[in-house]
Amino acid sequence: MVEKMLKFVSLGRDMPGKRQPRERTRDFHEIYAEFAASKAAEQASRCSQCGVPFCQVHCPLSNNIPDWLKLTAEGRLEEAHEVSQATNNLPEICGRICPQDRLCEGSCVIEQSGHGTVTIGAVEKYINDTAWENGWVKPLQPARERDQSIGIIGAGPAGLACAEQLRKKGYKVTVYDRHDRAGGLMVYGIPGFKLEKHIVARRVKRLEDGGIVFKLNFEVGRDASLDKIRDKHDAVFIATGVYRAREIEVPGANLGAIVPALDFLIASNKKSFGDDVPDYDNGKLNADGKDVAVIGGGDTAMDCVRTALRQGAKSVSCLYRRDKDNMPGSLREVANAEEEGVKFEWLTLPKAFLGMENVEGVRIARQRLGAPDTSGRKSPEEIKGADFVQKADLVIKALGFDPEYLPMKFAAPRLTVSKWGTVRVRPSTMMTDIPGVFAGGDIVRGASLVVWAIRDGRDAAAAMHTWLQAQVRQAAE
Question: Which segments constitute the FAD/NAD(P)-binding domain (predicted)?
Fold first, then answer.
């Protein structure tokens, strides 16, 4: 029904409504309303159905976006859901947290022509939320059961995607995770105002109901070495993510009340579950009544500044060494933070933390952008004599994450890593130097996006299946 599409000339871009900043900063609920059916169909009908769909090309999962937009415009939502989940194990989660402005929507042809992008993420969220509400998301039902078993280390997006793909093929799958809930940073790193936790929990339950076993509070290296896990299974997939916070080496960095971003976010999310969190209750990881400075410009920094506001911070500032146009995080999240009252100090670099036992302020250098570096981005350089001091009694470091040193942590000296600490794999097979041990997600590519982790989990599952079937054939010969 071609007449239902190509309406971008007559229909403007329209996002779901947002709760007002004063209201939404009082809680940790999601800030966006749901599309109504008519509005979702209307916005989907703006798609130009490109012969070469750049939205799909620039999606790490190569999601069939034009197809499910067309089906949505025609009111065929169950089919749209089937197309959406065919390439994505966590579509309603990606619809919420993917930086669409940098991926699919940022590459939309009608956006480039000045008509405003199709609201791809909001429609994706609507399709798949509707599918859950109507019972269209079916339990996992393998066509056959296989004797081989898989061990997956890490219950984040890469591990969950890999587990689902392999369980669909009938393998026995066990997922090991150090935390007490499955979901990785989707549960403990991303705040509820971007992703409410029941959204992740129902995906995990679907996997459990489909026969996947979760062993939580299980830390490889403490409870069992990698070799013992490998001996127990026919193949293993390492998907631990990266958790080690990058440090800032300036005077005063060892003062109290200077905390890593992930510690701060995990404490907040655990508190939202009703868990006992002593460092939250005693104020160490709680912004209530404090002047908060967050150092960094990525999505984690945006999660921290917006969480601090909801905890009742007196003031919240974000210190970033480049300007707004060069921020690595989603500009949509920056806009949300600005609406909610976060103060951004662009082109600033902490030179020292001030205080006696706990931090009381930050000495900051003003910067300007100079010549481009090797990545093509302009390098910041200090403006002499332009320092200033900003009051802060809680500083949150959101400078990015590096891998833990897994050969030592896993008691696995045969596991080789790069100079950055990421696990080395053969790109064509995703296998490490240990036969039958595969790896993917952030522990291989470095800190990245949930959508890339899902892609790695799916690719690893396919590679593991190929390798396992080759093992079966060799044993039969």
Answer: 150-457
